[in-house]
Amino acid sequence: MIPQQLSLGVSLNDDATFENFYAPDSTANTHIVAALRAQIANGNESFIYVWGAPGCGLTHLLQAACHQAQTLGKSFQYFPLRDLVGYAPHELFAGLETLDFVCLDGLDLVIGRSEWELALFNLFNVLRDLGKLLLVAAVHSPRELAVQLPDLASRLQWGATFHLHTLDDTEKQQALQFRARARGLELNDEVATYILQRLPRDMNELFLQLNRLDHASLAEQRKLTIPFVKKILGV
Predict the structure, then answer these.
(1) C-beta separation of 18 from 33 below 8 A
(2) Could you tell me if 50 and 123 lie in one domain?
């Protein structure tokens, strides 16, 4: 089945896969990745709620789950709620009960809007009754959300809840080097440290700039050195 997401004009980032997500061994983030993989593959958790600070990798993980669903031949829908706040939620959610898997990214952004909260409550009930899979991400935990609809507030606390931890600076450098290796780039410690010290420490921004360096390195047939990084990124 062709993913319904195509009709929304929503596309997944090709780099946003579980294999491409850096989670240090034996950390809470590693266990979260395992739980999401298991949800898609086995359906052992029908509802999972993941929360964490902006830039910690929530969108990456939700899109990775969608990539895995697609690989396994499951029908799915990914909703980047930041881009959909102005839409009528009941229309957006129509027909989702026919899909295997639904992803809601950025729940915080629609909480407090009565129309959205009612639509979310109804969607939750329909998917749960039919045994479908739901994955939700937000900046705040379920208990910290300012939900106006009491029944929705209780539903959001029914599933498995995971806190995705933000990487420290050492782990961010390792994540940058991990992503570089996946692209076939050599990023040594000296250059990685230089980049991390001069760019915002948000992982989304770091990976965006790594993409720039990757393209420039290919175009100019240059290795990643500090002078080359200065030239390309202007830092």
Answers:
(1) yes
(2) yes
Residue labelled with tokens 């997944």: 12
Q: How many residues does the chain have?
A: 235
Report whether 160 contacts 47 (CB < 8 A): yes
Tens-digit pLDDT profile for residues 200-221: 888 888 998 999 999 999 999 9
Query: 101-105 and 76-80 as β-strands: parallel, antiparallel, unpaired?
Result: parallel
In degrees rounded to 5, what are phi and psi of residue 145? -70, 140
Give yes or no: residues 183 and 224 share one domain. Answer: yes
pLDDT at 44 over 90: no
Pull the structure tokens for residue 216. 């420039």
Tell me: do 99 and 125 sit in the same domain: yes
* 133 and 46 Cβ atoms separated by less than 8 Å: yes
Same domain as 227, residue 143 = no
Tabulate helix, strand, coil % of the chain (nearest 5).
Answer: 50, 10, 35
Q: Which stretches of the chain are assigned E, i.e. beta strand? A: 47-51, 76-80, 101-105, 133-138, 160-163
Domain count of the fold of the chain: 2
Considering the domain architecture, whether residues 159 and 174 belong to the same structural domain is answered as: no
Domain that holds residue 53: 4-163
Question: What pTM was estimated for this model as a whole?
Answer: 0.88
Query: Under a CB-based contact definition with an 8 Å cutoff, are residues 133 and 123 in contact?
Result: no
